[in-house]
Amino acid sequence: MSHKKRKKIKDIHDDNNIEKENIEKYGYPKFCFKYLQEVSFNKSNDFYFFIDFLLRLKKLSELGWNEINKSDRHSYGYELISINQIRQNKLPEIITKDMKTLTVFRANGQNKPFIGIRNGDIFHIIFIETNFGDVYNHH
Predict the structure, then answer these.
(1) DSSP 16-81
(2) Predicted TM-score of the model (pTM)
């Protein structure tokens, strides 16, 4: 992996663990699907779920990071989970060995999660859990 690519991934790692006081400076979230894993959609034929998910992304984009930070994790907020909870054997290169947590948002009103990494105002969506337990262990 090139030095430039390692630096970019390190910057993403640093921003994923951003302090709450600094969240406000980034404005509104932008969602990136570059690292989305196939397990997120290959077993689902529930197109209503994905419509709800798109509406959730639209709402999060309208709220902005400041309001998201104030919201409950089961509403429009988020929580952190340990990378060790992820059931997938192969993780994308954006997840480096020194990373300990991933950020979890709710994808719809049924609390099904989507999981990713924050880099400034960009949220890289890595997993969308269309069925509870497909992606990570909910303890």
Answers:
(1) HT--HHHHGGG-S-EEE-TT--GGGTTT---HHHHHHHHHHHHHHHHHHHHHHHHS-TTTT-EEEE
(2) 0.80
> How far apart, in whole angstroms, are the C-alpha atoms of residue 99 and residue 105?
18
Termini Cα distance of the chain = 35
> Distance between CA 22 and CA 25 in Å, rounded?
6
Q: Are 23 and 103 in contact (CB under 8 A)?
A: no
Beta strands 113-119; 122-128: pairing state: antiparallel
Instruction: Name the percent of the chain lying above pLDDT 90.
Output: 58
Tell me the one-letter amino acid at 115. Answer: I
DSSP three-state, residue 95: coil
**What pLDDT shows up at residue 100?**
95
